[in-house]
Design brief:
Strand content: 15-25%
Number of strands: 12
Shape: elongated
Strand order of the largest sheet: 1-2-5-4-3-12
Number of helices: 3
Helix content: 25-40%
């Protein structure tokens, strides 16, 4: 349309009519006289708008996705970080539960034996100290630790203190070849000396060559004068093999120790010995024997009271 005086006049007139219709529509509310026209327009142009919306929405969604990708990436990064932290916490909780279990068992042993202990953590192993079976703990002279003190954990005898510094100490483990401890057998009180053999069972020489001993018997520490280096009653291990008696003055046993020397974490140094020998009180409860199943066979007699013969099982005789 050309920009003329007539066209301008027409545009002003159309605008005036539009405003008049809007005013009438607002004042009329639900009874607006233009409501019928609005519905007719909706019926005519609705399908077209719906089609355009369907065609345009995927593009709009894609644009929104691109626009929000930065914030979504940030949220994903936060979630991944929280997930990693949760896993770390879970791992930490598992470790804490394990250590609490170790501490609980160690305190139980100390209570049963009436040992006064100082708790410590293993911070180094013997590979850094000349390849001997030793550990370093994070407790020393400042904590009341002295040379030749017994070291135990929740399972039993760990070793003895050999070197003490202000804040750390070295412990010779019970499986070291230079380690020897006096032992007493549960029940019959047979005495002996146990020596370490590295990753093999402890070797025990009983003083009585004719002692009655069998696989499964258990040993505890005999104790030393003034409780140094060993307090009495600490569980040592279980007899796994007995050498045949050769009529000698001693008898050789092989004992599987209670303590796993390759997985030590929390230990207790006995700083105060018991007032009396706990004897066998500290030993763990014996495992209950597994019952052997028995099979009972019941023979049911025939109706006439006679035992069935071979013909009953092989068919009618000819």
């Amino acid at each position: 349309m050309r920009d003329t005086k007539e066209s301008r006049l027409l545009l002003v007139l159309l605008i005036a009519i539009a405003f008049a219709l809007i005013t009438v529509d607002i004042r009329g509310g639900r009874n607006s006289p233009v409501d019928g026209a609005r519905q007719a327009a909706a019926a005519a142009f609705g399908p077209i708008e719906n089609g355009l919306s369907t065609a345009v929405d995927p593009v709009g969604n894609a644009v929104s996705a691109v626009r929000d990708s930065g914030s979504r990436h940030d949220r994903l990064a936060v979630m991944e970080k929280e997930n990693a932290a949760l896993k770390a916490k879970l791992g930490s909780d598992d470790r804490n539960r394990s250590r609490l279990n170790q501490l609980d068992r160690m305190l139980k042993v100390a209570g049963q034996g009436q040992y006064g202990i100082k708790g410590a953590q293993v911070i180094a192993i013997g590979a850094a100290q000349g390849f001997s079976w030793t550990i370093t703990i994070d407790a020393g002279a400042d904590d009341g630790i002295k040379r030749d003190m017994t070291v135990l954990n929740g399972d039993g005898l760990v070793g003895r203190v050999t070197t003490v510094g202000p804040e750390t100490a070295t412990v010779l483990l019970a499986n070291d070849p230079d380690f020897t401890v006096g032992t007493r057998m549960e029940g019959n009180d047979e005495l002996g000396f146990a020596s370490g053999q590295g990753d093999r069972p402890l070797r025990v020489e009983l003083l009585n060559g004719k002692a009655e001993v069998k696989k499964g018997d258990r040993l505890v520490t005999f104790g030393s004068q003034a409780d140094k280096p060993f307090v009495p009653g600490v569980p040592v291990g279980v007899v796994s093999r007995v050498d045949p008696s050769g009529g000698g003055l001693t008898r050789t046993l092989y004992v599987t120790p209670y303590v796993g020397f390759s997985k030590l974490d929390l230990v207790g140094v006995v700083v105060t010995g018991p007032k009396k020998d706990p004897r066998d009180e500290v030993l763990p409860a014996k495992p209950k024997p597994v019952p052997t199943p028995t099979v009972t066979v019941t023979v049911t007699p025939s109706a006439d009271g006679a035992a069935p013969d071979d013909s009953d099982t092989n068919g009618q005789q000819q």
